[in-house]
Write a structure and sequence with these properties.
The structure holds two protein chains of two kinds. By secondary structure, chain A is mainly α. Chain A contains 14 helices and two strands; from the N terminus they run βαααααααααααααβα. Chain A has one domain: Formate dehydrogenase/DMSO reductase fold (Up-down Bundle). Chain A has a two-stranded antiparallel ribbon with strand order 1-2. In chain A, helix 1 runs antiparallel to helix 2, helix 1 packs antiparallel against helix 3 and helix 9 crosses helix 11. The longest helix of chain A has about 35 residues. Chain A is globular. Chain B is mainly alpha-helical. Chain B is built from eight helices and no strands. The termini of chain B are far apart. The chains are: A mainly alpha, B mainly alpha. Chains A and B meet through helix 5 and helix 7 of A and helix 1 of B.
Chain lengths: ~400, ~160
């Protein structure tokens, strides 16, 4: 602690779990928006990742509320949010956005897309697995072309509804921070937009990475056309995201309101590593430079794969750092602008590093199970052009 | 029924959602307390329960009735805006039965610094002292009369 802090500011109320929360929902929204691209705008190139993106979104969405539950304690009370909704609380209404997105969009879309596979698996599997698939068919085994055509139509409409829903889901997270008018570090109408674009960036990077990793694990060739297209999207959304963040920064510097000196000092001291070095240089400028290189120069496929992998990992690190700087940064300075505190992460505490790491691994475990139940791999794509390298 | 054949599974899906909704509504009506939402997002009956609890504060006016000397002293001093019970604590029991319930006098060493110890978070105009330097270790009420601690309005002890 340094200078003067109000008594309730000395200890941070929102720790690493609250950092994790927007990070996870961001991945959900990003992965879904990538999947929707294929569906709504019929971008054939990214088709190999369509189902993988949906399952990734679902796995992360299931985990997304857990950090909040762990942070607040009393998970059984979260039900009250639905039973007795409080209409003037943004956080309470978010529960409905979440439920809508989970049940009405993601689950239905996945179900419709997988119905043919589910019916076939229900007919061919026995035991518990067979029971599960038979339950998933809801007792209807009609996969006639006419029925599937209707599914496709309905799925398309749901995706169309899903895109604004995904925007809402993550715009909302940004809104919750952006609307805290007492906190100058958060309070900006740009916050939802910045969160949204950074969500898309992180989700696309995650799917890119997951696609490469799962392909390597299954020992099949990656579809380079798909990879190149996703990387291109990653690059463009990242440019927009970066531009927005810079806009926010320039606006703050130009406006220089009464909080500016305090925040500026914080960025140069407490947040120097996480904001300037990790978020901006390592997590934004470096992947942007790598991606723009691949847009200008045609590298051989193996090199492109490596560059994409490195750029995606850096991107994810950068976006995580961005969430960190928003959430933690917003609590390091006193609202009196006279002092600064420090954040110490516990380890084996309820809101410590260990549960955070566990919550970060959990979606991958869920994804693994989902992939086992609903294999996302379509009949081998016709575009597999280049042989798969060593990675 | 023939024309619905190809959307039968969608109807079933809608049925599942409908079942879920019905379950939700039933669950809601069973679990939510009857008086919830009568006055706002809380249990209306809670107000009755709270108001039936015994009072702990008697209020300024009650004290002044029986302690007019202190009230007069205070009314002319710098502490005129303070409520008796903000220093003396809740004393409804004493006000009801002064003969049997005798209040414990506040511990001056704790009391005054609660409001007057120096802190830059306080408005600059509020009187505040560094207790150790200012009092030289003596109790505040050796020099200040608690009910009128200023020195201008004849409050000197």
């Amino acid at each position: 602690m340094e200078g003067f802090m109000y008594p309730n500011e000395v200890e941070l109320q929102w720790g690493i779990l609250i950092v994790l929360y927007p990070f996870l929902t961001g991945l959900v929204a990003g992965a879904f928006i990538l999947a929707s691209l294929e569906r709504v705008f019929r971008v054939e190139e990214v088709k190999p990742t369509y189902r993988l993106s949906l399952l990734t979104a679902l796995a992360f969405l299931i985990v997304a509320p857990l950090p909040l539950q762990l942070h607040l304690g009393h998970p059984e009370r979260s039900l009250e949010m639905y039973l007795t909704p409080h209409r003037s609380s943004a956080m309470a209404m978010f529960g409905f956005v979440y439920l809508w997105y989970l049940m009405a969009v993601l689950v239905v879309e996945i179900w419709l897309d997988y119905r043919r596979d589910i019916v076939r698996l229900a007919e061919s599997s026995r035991g518990v697995k067979g029971l599960l698939y038979r339950a998933l068919t809801l007792g209807s085994y009609n996969i006639s072309p006419a029925a599937l055509r209707i599914d496709d139509r309905v799925g398309w409409i749901i995706t169309l509804i899903g895109i604004p829903s995904a925007f809402l889901l993550h715009g909302y997270v940004g809104f919750i921070f952006g609307s805290v008018k007492a906190n100058p570090w958060w309070s900006t109408p740009l916050m939802p937009v910045v969160f949204l674009f950074s969500a898309m960036v992180s989700g696309i990077a995650l799917v890119l990475l997951m696609y490469m990793v799962t392909s390597a694990m299954r020992r099949v060739a990656v579809d380079m056309r798909c990879l190149d297209t996703i990387a291109k999207y990653l690059f463009y959304t990242f440019v927009i995201d970066f531009a927005l963040e810079m806009l926010d920064l320039i606006h703050r510097i130009y406006e220089s309101d009464e909080s500016f000196r305090s925040l500026d000092f914080m960025v140069h001291t407490r947040l120097f590593y996480s904001q300037i070095l990790i978020q901006i240089f390592l997590g934004t400028l470096a992947p942007l430079a790598l991606l723009s290189l691949t847009q200008m120069i045609t590298f051989p496929a193996a090199a492109r794969r490596r560059i994409y992998a490195i750029a995606s990992v850096l991107t994810l690190v950068g976006i995580f750092a961005m969430r960190w700087n928003v959430v933690i940064g917003g609590q390091l300075f006193s609202k009196s602008f006279l002092g600064y505190t420090t954040y110490k992460v516990g380890f084996v505490t309820r809101e410590g590093l260990l549960p955070a790491v566990a919550l970060m691994i959990l979606p991958f475990a869920i994804l693994y199970v989902l992939i086992k139940i609903l294999p996302p791999w379509q009949e081998e794509s016709p575009f597999v052009a280049e042989a798969h390298g060593d990675d | 029924m023939g024309e619905f054949k190809d959307i039968a599974h969608l109807i079933r899906l809608a049925g599942v959602f409908l079942l879920g909704l019905i379950f939700f509504l039933v669950f809601r009506s069973v679990t939510i307390p009857k008086s919830f939402g009568r006055y706002g997002p809380f249990r209306g009956a809670a107000l009755v329960e709270l108001s039936s609890r015994p009072l702990s504060f008697a209020g300024h006016a009650a004290c002044e009735n029986c302690h007019p000397d202190v009230a007069a002293l205070k009314a002319n001093g710098v502490h005129k805006s303070l409520n008796c019970e903000s220093c003396h604590g809740p004393l409804a029991k004493h006000a009801d039965d002064p003969g049997n319930v005798k209040p414990v006098l506040p511990d001056v060493a704790q009391l005054c610094i609660r409001c007057h110890s120096e802190n830059i978070a306080k408005p600059a105009g509020f009187p505040q002292v560094n207790a150790k330097e200012h009092s030289g270790g003596q109790a505040c009420n050796t020099c200040h009369q608690p009910h009128s601690p200023g020195f201008d309005a004849g409050g000197k002890k």
